Amino acid sequence: METDLANKTFIVTGANTGIGKITARELAARGAHVILACRNQAKTDAVVDEIRREVPGAQVEYVHLDLGDLASVRSSAAELLARKLPIHGLINNAGLGGQRGQTKDGFEIQFGTNHLGHYLFTRLLLDRIIESGPARIVNVASASHYQARAIDWAVLQQPTKTVTAMREYAVSKLSNVLFTKELARRLEGTQVSTYAVHPGVVATDVWRRVPGPFRWLMKKFMITPERGAESSLRCATDPTLQGESGRYYSVGGKEQRPSKLADDGTLAQTLWTRSAEWTGLPA
Ligand SMILES: NC(=O)c1ccc[n+]([C@@H]2O[C@H](COP(=O)([O-])OP(=O)(O)OC[C@H]3O[C@@H](n4cnc5c(N)ncnc54)[C@H](OP(=O)(O)O)[C@@H]3O)[C@@H](O)[C@H]2O)c1
User: Fold this and answer.
1) pLDDT tens across 1-45, in order?
2) What kind of fold does domain 9-279 have according to CATH?
């Protein structure tokens, strides 16, 4: 992995806990300027302070971003662009699972947050990322994407249907892999590469909805957030991956074949076009 990231700027979404927090800390430890794009200022300020204590001289800061609110995504991107900073790495890490409901704009909460919020955020920052090339976009997906059997377009603007929300989570993660693929196609000829990753089954707050004793037991068998961050960190920085784009990487950053559906170029283009319509962007 690249060990000297001095003069490089990275944005990590959902960096106030779990895999995102470790990703931000490790990038900062290698000298990168890291922007933690998160929805909770108090939680993120505490993490910024913690990283500054652990990594003397770390350049880390907070920007407000609520991916479940497209207006917040627009103002966050506008704030970042106004700073005139280059963006060498965007790590779309934030995500939720097991929750029921809709985003502020009426999308199923897993799809709206995990895919659509990141889609808009990425597209609004894309020209700056291209200008900053070589640059990378890492989308934190999940092996859960293998469980998605189809995208039912009709239910994406309705509240979560299933009790566990796992079906909706799988569709949101399939969307992360498809977005990575289509983005790579559209970025051909630029110096920007895209990567979809599965971090592993990681002991983080993502399991916060599981009842206490079960959660404790489950977490004993999971990998640590440090190990979970390895796939994002490898895809964001490993020089040997420069030039590879649109692919899927599993635990530790090992390349793997995604599901057949995730490899469907037509589906990836349809998701792009619909996401553009939903977010008011040109296709
Ligand atoms: N843990 C696993 O086993 C596992 C497996 C496969 C994939 N993943 C993926 O890995 C990524 C990181 O997950 P994690 O395990 O580190 O989970 P986590 O500890 O729950 O962290 C998730 C992060 O996403 C943020 N987030 C959620 N909704 C948001 C919103 N509307 N706007 C902005 N930020 C939001 C959370 O912020 P708050 O703290 O404010 O809620 C938190 O910072 C996710 O995309 C997840 O789907 C995790």
Assistant:
1) 667 999 999 999 999 999 999 999 999 999 999 999 999 999 999
2) Rossmann fold (3.40.50)
Q: What are the domain boundaries of the chain?
A: 9-279
249 is catalytic: no
Q: Of the residues 39, 92, 99, 168, which should be mutated to test ligand 1's pocket, given the most ligand atoms within 8 Å of the CB?
A: 39
Beta bridge pairs of residue 250? 254
pLDDT in tens, 122-156: 999 999 999 999 999 999 999 999 999 999 999 99
pTM: predicted TM-score of the whole model, two decimal places: 0.97
Looking at 62, 119, 146, 169, which residue is catalytic? 169
- Mutation choice for ligand 1 from 206, 210, 219, 226, CB with most ligand atoms inside 8 A: 206
